[in-house]
Design brief:
Layout lengths: L6 E4 L1 E4 L2 E9 L14 H28 L3 H14 L2 H14 L3 H19 L2 H21 L13 E4 L4 H8 L5 E4 L7 H8 L4 E3 L4 H4 L5 E5 L4 E4 L3 H22 L15 E6 L4 H8 L3 E6 L1 H7 L3 H15 L4 E4 L24 H6 L1 H13 L6 E5 L5 H21 L7 E6 L2 H5 L1 H4 L5 E4 L1 H9 L17 H17 L2 E4 L7 H10 L3 E4 L4 H8 L4 H11 L5 H15 L9
Helix pairs in contact: 1-2, 1-5, 2-5, 3-4, 4-5, 6-7, 12-14, 14-15, 20-21, 20-22, 20-23
The protein binds phosphoenolpyruvate and magnesium ion (MG).
Length: 578
């Protein structure tokens, strides 16, 4: 700790929960990989030595992790990684690359493991595709160990990780470890790593400037993820106060669970469909522990990252999920690659305004067709829906629907019978709202994605914490667009869902119900709270509130009105959120 003063810092609330725990500070600036040309034989031998030492060190870490973990799945994964690491041929290839190309060990690892990954992906089965994913993780762990930067052991810390920014890979590593919470300097509420933490109930606060400089390993901090507060160097009295708040929060959570078997229905009888957003298939198990729910948004970008366009791998994954959630449905969103989910080779100045989502898919029809085929084939139980991301124009939907119908016809020729999934779009660009009356003619449903709708309406980068004050899904401009969309859907008689992060914000839930949204899809961990809230909302009252708030000037005024209502129907909730 650099100062002994208690310091209360306010950041962006990412994932609720109270923690009082030690921190581990991960300093990322050390891990930038640079290609280096080796000038002498001595340098070459040094790089080879670094490689051997790194392999031994990583093996030791993996074996330790295996001993510590209770998770059978993780044990299997660790075994696979240890086997790959011990593969003599792979080791020989890396050493040969260092010698022949005279390049540093990091470049050699990347090159050799990447080409093996590509070869595995070409084999075309989900087994090989999974192994390819393991190779990629292993390469980054090995490089981290060799660089003496952070290691996967750091991510197995039984406390709070403090890090400049959190990538999606790091978030996935965290959910597979003992880490209790996360604090970052950068990042926003709708960033994908934030979404993963929320889904897995890891309390987190993002956007606390210079936090990695203010803390040292093992300092005790208080993290309040619901309010976005971090207290460093807490006084004895503050610690005592938060211990009590923590107990209250746990009690509040267990009371929510008591409504587990009850339906999400308003006090005046409208059933609001309640679904989960998932980013990785592992989340389905977590979801089913919460209750029997369907999936309102399956983001498939991680599938693309691990398996590429492999149809069989996708089919197996989609089918397994559809079977697991049956009789509820799963809405599979086509790959939304590009933008911040950039698993492509495109280099663009403005990726959020560039080749992303449906634009990529129409640009690469083979990739799109393979995903469509996998989705249609997985609809054995008729509980699969398919949805397009980033729709901006009517033509995009017309063209995508043509490809979809054509793929179905081809499948019908190959297979005896297929069930056509319901076909919908994400509404997340203002133009899609304004053109919805035309698009509605050829779709079955929409899902309003407020993360991007907010980003594109207010021209505010969803990842950039420097403009995070402007990023607010409760801005009346965003709410007005939602109202236009729900009005069109009602008129055209199509289902309207919402799946942005607004669905886990209690203020957002009241607004959405009042605006006429039929289904909400939120992170699995947030379902109990959202359901409790829905069960206390009166539709008529929420409709009145919604028609008032769309006329207001800013989100502060919107929040004030909705807060009064929540105070009336669920006051305990306000103890844990601002
Ligand atoms: C959204 O934009 O609101 C959404 C749900 O999609 P994503 O967060 O994956 O962009
Ligand atoms: Mg989106």
């Amino acid at each position: 700790m650099k100062s002994s003063q208690e310091l209360k810092l306010k950041g962006i609330p990412i994932s609720p929960g109270i923690l009082i725990a030690p921190v581990r500070v991960i300093r990322k600036e050390k891990i930038k990989i640079k290609e280096k040309i080796l000038k002498s034989e001595r340098e070459i031998e040094e790089e080879i030595q670094k490689f051997h030492t790194g392999v031994e060190e990583l093996k030791r870490i993996l074996l330790d992790l295996k001993k510590e973990t209770q998770e059978e799945n993780l044990k299997v994964l660790l075994d696979i990684q240890i086997t790959i690491l011990s593969d003599e041929e792979m080791q020989r290839d890396i050493i040969t690359f260092i010698r022949n190309k005279r390049k540093n060990v990091e470049s050699a690892i990347q090159h050799v493991l990447n080409s093996r990954k590509e070869a595995l992906l070409k084999q075309g089965s989900s087994y090989f595709a999974e192994r390819a994913g393991e190779l990629e993780r292993l390469a980054s762990d090995l490089i981290s160990v060799i660089n003496k930067s952070y290691t996967i052991a750091d991510f197995n810390f039984d406390g709070i990780i403090v890090i400049e920014s959190l990538s999606i890979d790091e978030a996935l590593r965290i959910i597979r470890s003992n880490v209790k919470g996360v604090i970052t300097e950068k990042g926003g509420r709708t960033e994908h790593s934030a979404i993963v933490l929320r889904n897995f109930k890891i309390p987190a606060v993002f956007g606390i400037e210079k936090i990695t400089k203010l803390l040292e390993d093992d300092d005790i901090v208080i993290l309040d993820g619901g309010k976005g507060v971090v207290i460093i160097n807490p006084m004895e009295s503050t610690l005592k106060r938060y211990q009590l708040i923590k107990i209250d929060y746990e009690k509040y959570e267990s009371e929510l669970v008591s409504e587990r078997e009850l339906p999400p229905i308003t006090t005046d009888g409208k059933v609001i469909g309640l679904f989960a957003n998932i980013d990785v298939p592992e989340e389905v198990e977590e979801l089913l522990k919460t209750g029997k729910y369907g999936i309102g948004l399956f983001r498939t970008e991680m599938i693309f990252k691990e398996y590429g366009d492999n149809e069989e791998a996708q089919y197996e994954i989609y089918l397994e999920i559809a079977r697991k959630v049956y009789p509820n449905s799963v809405t599979i969103r086509a790959f939304d690659i590009g933008g911040d989910k950039l698993y492509t080779d495109y280099q663009e100045d403005n990726p959020f305004l560039g080749l992303r989502g449906i634009r990529v898919l129409l640009d690469e029809p083979t990739l799109f067709e393979k995903q469509i085929r996998a989705v249609i084939r997985a609809n054995e139980l008729s509980n699969v829906r398919f949805m397009l991301p980033m729709v901006a124009t009517v033509e995009e939907v017309v063209e995508a629907k043509k490809i979809f119908i054509q793929a179905k016809k081809v499948l019908e020729r190959e297979y005896m019978k297929v069930n056509q999934p319901r076909f919908g779009i994400m509404v997340e660009i203002p133009s899609a709202v304004l053109l919805l009356e035309h698009i509605a003619e050829i779709i079955d449903f929409i899902s309003i994605g407020t993360n991007d709708l907010t980003q594109y309406t207010l021209a505010v980068d969803r990842k950039n914490q420097r403009v995070s004050k402007i990023f607010d899904h409760l801005n009346p401009a965003v709410l007005k667009l939602i109202k236009i969309a729900t009005d069109v859907c009602r008129e055209k008689n199509i289902l309207v869902a919402s799946c942005g992060e607004i669905t886990s914000d209690p203020y957002g839930v009241v607004a959405l119900v009042g605006l006429g949204v039929d289904e909400l899809s939120c992170p699995p961990s947030r379902i109990p709270e959202v359901k409790s809230l829905i069960r206390r909302i009166n539709l008529q009252e929420a409709e009145n509130i919604a028609s008032n708030v769309v006329k207001l000037q800013n989100s502060k005024e919107v929040k004030k009105v909705i807060k009064e209502y929540i105070k009336k129907i669920m006051p305990e909730l306000l103890e844990f959120y601002d």
